[in-house]
Structures are given as C-alpha cells and as structure tokens.
Design a protein that fits this description.
Two copies of one chain form a homodimer. By secondary structure, chain A is of the alpha/beta class. Chain A is built from 14 helices and 13 strands. The first copy, chain A, has helices at residues 25-31, 46-56, 76-88, 103-115, 129-135, 173-190, 192-200, 202-206, 210-230, 245-255, 262-279, 285-298, 309-317, 346-357; strands spanning 2-6, 13-18, 36-42, 61-67, 96-101, 121-126, 140-145, 148-155, 160-164, 322-323, 326-327, 329-334, 337-341. A seven-stranded mixed sheet of chain A has the order 1-2-9-6-5-3-4, with helices on both faces. Chain A has a two-stranded antiparallel ribbon with strand order 7-8. Chain A has a two-stranded antiparallel sheet with strand order 10-11. In chain A, α1 crosses α2 and α13 (309-317) packs across α14. The relative contact order of chain A is 0.11.
C-alpha cells in the first residue's frame, strides 16, 4: 500500500493506494474513525463491494443507501435522499458518510456530508479510475443544476481516501479509458515526463497491470495534491485542473449528461485546448497530433459532436469558470505546462470551435 | 451609525447599526462590493424596503427574488428557487447575494450563497429584531428538514451586516417581543449587568425608543461576536448561544413550525433551562421567577404547550445538539453565566419536563 498525503493544514488527509484494500478490515477501520457511519453507494457498485466494506466497519452502527447509477441522478433530489437516510438513522454531528463508488457518488455523498448539520466527516472509497485520480481528491463536492454542471456544491475535504485498485477489475473498459483521460491531463498540465511515461504504458494500463496502475494513480494524486495544496478554494492555480473541462462541459451539456462520459468529453476538450494553444503559436501542430494520437491509442473519442460553434460558445459562457464576464480557459504553454488565460483573440477561439463543432466534409 | 466588528481573521466583517441606513445609498453601496447582485427577500418585506435597497445598488446588475413568508418555506425547495434565480441571471462566482428580511430569508439566502458555485459573497440586511441580534450574525445558514430544524446547512460568513433599526417600525409587535427573547438570552448566558439593563428598559424597547434599541442590538451583537470569534464552527463555547433552543425546538417541532414564533419557543425554553438549573441547585427559585417575570413583562408566553414530557424528550433527542448520543443542554450556573452540560440527573430533567409539558390542574 502506498500513501499520498494532501497537505491542507488541519484539513490534511491521506490517500491510500493499493490492491485489495477493501479486503483488509484494518485499513477501512483506520480510515473511518466514527462510530456511526452511512455508506452511500449506487446500485451497480453496491452489490459488488458493499459487503466487503461493511466487514471493515464491524462493531460500528453502519447504514447504507444505494443511489441510482448515472450522472443524471447527480441532483438536489438525490442529495435530499442521502440527507433523509442520515435523519432516518438519527445520526448526529459525530457521524461519518462514506462514499463507495465513482465520481457521482463521491460528489453527492461529499456534499451531503458538507451540509448535514453544517458539516460532518467524510471518507472516499473511489471505485472508478476517474474518481481515484481526480474527483475523490481535493474536496470539491456538489450536484448539477439543469442549466449547468456542479453549479451547487461546497468545498469539503474528506478525512481519508481509500483507493482499492482491485475494484477496477469490474469497471467497464469504456469507463477505464475515460479515467485515463484525466491521467493524461496531469501529464499535459504539469509533467512532460509523466506524459511520456503514459505514452509508453498505454497497453499495461488498459490491461490493468498493477504496477502501471499504481504509478498512474499515485503520480496523478501527487500532482493534484500539489496543486490543491497551493490553492484549496480555486482562486488561481487550481483552475489548471480544468484543462479540457470548459469545452468538455459544453459537450456534456449539449448531449445530455451521461451520453458522453466525463472523461470522454474532457479528452476532446483537451484536444480543443491544444488546438487553440497551437493557433496561438504556443505549441506546435505536431504537439496537437501527439495529444490526438495518445487519446486514440487509449481508445477515447477525438471528434467533437456536431453541436455548432455558436451553441458551444453559449454553453461555455454558462460554465462556472467564467471570470467577471470574460471567458478564461486552461491552455498549454507547452506539453507539460498548463496556463490559465483569458488572453487570446476571440477569432482564434472561434476558429477552434468552428473546426471541431461544425459539420465537416467527409 | 455604530459598528460592531466580528473578528474571524480573513472572514472578519462589520455589523452596521443605525436608523435609516437603507435610505443612505452610500452605506448600502459600500457594504455590497460586487457588480452582480441578487436580492433575496419575501413577499411581506419586499414591498416595504426593496425599492430603497435597490436605489443603493444603482449602477449594478441587480435582480431580486421574493420568497413566501414563513418558517414553513425554509426548505430545500425554496433554496432551489434562489439558485434557479442565480442561474437565470447567469451570475458567476463574483456575484453577491443580499438577504433582505428576517431569519428565514437570511438563512436560505446565506445557504444559497454558500452553495452557489461552491461559495459566493453574501450580505445580510436583517429587518426583524430577531435577525438583527441573532441570525444575521455568525455565519450559520441552512434550511429545515421535515424531521428537524436547520439539519441541512453550512457555515458561511457574510461580508457585512446592515441593521437598519427603522425597519422595526413595520415589524408586528409579536415579532418584536419574540426578538427580545434572544436579547434576554445574551444577558442570561453572558452579562448580568445587561440583563438588569433590559429589566429596566422593557417599556422603551417595546416603544421602539432608538437609544434603547441601539444599545440592545449593539450589546447583543458584541456578545455574540465574542462567542462566535472564540468558536466559529461550534465545537464548544458557541453552544451557549443555544440556551433555551433545545427545549424550544421541541416546542416548535411539536406545534408545527410557524405556530409558535422562534423567540417565543426559545423564551419558554430558557424558562425550562432556568427551572432545571434551579433543580440542580445552581440558581435559586427566585432567579427562575425573575426570568419568568421578565418574559411576562415583555409579553412573551411562559407556559409550554401540553405536548407530554415523553414526546418533548423524543423531540429533544432528535435535536442536532445531541453529542455522541448523550443529551447536552445549556444551563445557568448563575444569571449571567451559561454553561453547556450533560452532567445532570435524568430525573431532574424529567421533573422539569413533567412540570412544564404535562397537563396541569387549573
């Protein structure tokens, strides 16, 4: 088992990474200190891993609630269901919510922990690669609004993250690939060596080779940890983690959440960010092709849906990372160095959107 | 205009207290720095003061939303309405929510500010005495759950509180009295001299004498400021502010929120806390009578509704101030000194509940 520490003063916490952690009750028991525990999971993950998790909670007062599976259930109504379960158990401020599942479960459960009696303890047990490398780390929680993703939420750090890599064995291949998009993101924004390592390890990663997975999850968490520690509440640097996300949210929003997986939309979004960075002369066209090739080898889509450039722009304008009415995007100064910038010609952005979101001749 | 400062490091903020502040646009403009502003009010207060407030926001992009008036509307559904209004205005993270109204408006609007895009600015313009001396100060925000008050919420400090005492001229007398219950609370838990001052100034306070009101609001805020600064997230001392509230919540819950006003329930709750403190030998029976007499002179109820001792206890058990399954209450070591304690014989509590919540011979 390896440990990455998120350094946030009194809100610091460990990320435990290893295979078979859920089968080691001592690991679970140590991560969850509270006596009263509500496990929030979904109907797909629950049948697979809930029993193992509950064995680690033996001797505690533990309840569970299984949400519907899917981004479309990341709503205030679902939040309400979790809060109802806490009230039904008569749990008080000393209770802990444990999220067992992917990003949706973690975001909803974490927001419930942030709100219940104005804030209680929270532990993440992510069971998707996406959640293990991204959403379980950093304290962002929330639900979607019909008009935009994650518009309602809170910053609420977990007490611990338990990433059992063995759970990836039951993850659909498409979701594994989607998670790898976020791994690529860390290479692009922060670490050219890591990017090259990913390029050399696509096959072992897709084959769930444990050494490769461990390195990918560990290095991703280290990079996220460093960025989050420098900017917990996203005043500046932390926005780098949104590479590809503003474009990606437009895709998810236009297609309906759940139609495109988050990582798929972010993958195409990173390609658009690279395209725009290239039009600005920051990176070479060959760098854009390098990104495209890596995404293709992973098995991720590299063509945006034809939603129209104007519609895409509108949807990006609704994105919450709009600063003082001016669109800011995460772009690439070079491969391995992201930069948050509103300093680009609107025409360059329009060219990128036109090239990707409009119908093309075959 | 007088100013009380809440000292919370980078979350510090001023409480501005005076008569006619809403008619001074410069005061409003200084308190609300943002360019985009949503004013949240209700259908009773809006027609009286919204226009004046909006004059102070001239030159900004300001929208407003009027909630239904009443504690029964302090729900997740109402929160959702405020968030919808923010999205409809396409407001981003730089926007500010201004709460114009009493405690319900402030709690819902503050929680919306805490949640919208994971936290935006927030200014309180309380128009009830209860909100001016209590709920607008200290950063507690939230909504009710069908099973309990304020079970869902966040700590989110405002940027400023603007307390215009002139707004109390339109406050129903019953609500003024209800607010005075919280003023009495500050005397009971922290300041025997202030308690004596209140006893000497019941008539001027009820007549809305400006000097008396200013002193009552200012001193209440000072005491709350000191307690909140020492314990922002209610780990210890801050619980003193809940004198009478655990008993009071049981009354509000049993009778249906809104039937008894919050201050009325808290007033009777303080009397029960005094009764129990007297049974423990901490204060004299004469002290209990002194509390009862003051509440009577203010025009507050001093008889609990006949809901049965057992039912009251159950409702208290659901209260969120239950610590590790053990009931803790705010009691009085003497008049002017509150203490948070779980250290009382259950029989003494039962005697207090029996004496107040059971039917009595005429």
């Amino acid at each position: 088992m390896q440990t990455v520490r998120i350094d946030l003063g009194e809100r610091s916490y460990p990320i435990l990474i290893g295979s078979g952690l859920l089968d080691r009750p001592a690991v679970v028991a140590q991560a969850v200190a509270a006596r009263d525990v509500l496990v929030v999971t979904n109907r797909t993950v629950g049948p697979l891993y809930l029993d193992a998790l509950l064995r680690g909670l033996e001797g505690k007062r533990a309840g569970s609630v299984a949400l519907e599976d899917g981004e479309q259930f990341k709503t205030l109504d679902t939040l309400s269901r979790v809060l109802d379960a806490m009230v039904a158990q008569r749990f008080n401020r000393d209770a802990c919510i444990v999220a067992l599942g992917g990003g949706v479960v973690g975001d909803v459960a974490g927001f419930a922990a942030a709100c219940y009696q104005r804030g209680i303890d929270f532990v993440q047990v992510p069971t998707t690669l996406l959640a293990q490398v991204d959403s379980s780390v950093g304290g962002k929680t929330g639900v979607n609004h019909p008009c935009g993703k994650n518009l309602i939420g809170a910053f609420h750090q977990p007490r611990a993250v338990v990433s059992d890599l063995a759970t990836l064995a039951t993850l659909p291949a498409r979701e594994l690939r989607s998670g790898l998009a976020e791994v690529v993101k860390y290479g692009l924004i922060h670490d050219a060596d890591f990017l090259a390592w990913i390029e050399s390890n696509v096959a072992p990663l897709l084959a769930l080779d444990l050494d490769a997975l461990t390195h990918a999850v560990r290095r991703s968490c280290e990079i996220k940890a460093r960025i989050v520690a420098s900017d917990e509440r996203e005043q500046g640097q932390r926005a780098l983690l949104n590479l590809g996300h503003t474009f990606g949210h437009a895709i998810e929003n236009a297609m309906g959440y759940g139609e495109w997986l988050h990582g798929e939309a972010v993958g195409v979004g990173m390609l658009l960010a690279a395209d725009l960075s290239s039009r600005l002369g920051w990176i070479a066209p060959a760098d854009v092709e390098r990104v495209r090739t890596l995404l293709e080898r992973i098995g991720l889509p590299t063509r945006a849906p034809v939603i129209g450039a104007q519609r895409a722009l509108e949807l990006m304008g609704m994105d919450k990372k709009v600063l003082a009415g001016r669109l800011r995007l995460v772009l690439l100064r070079r491969l391995g160095e992201g930069v948050v910038s509103g300093d680009f010609a609107p025409a360059a952005l329009e060219a990128t959107l036109g090239a990707h979101f409009e119908a093309r001749a075959a």
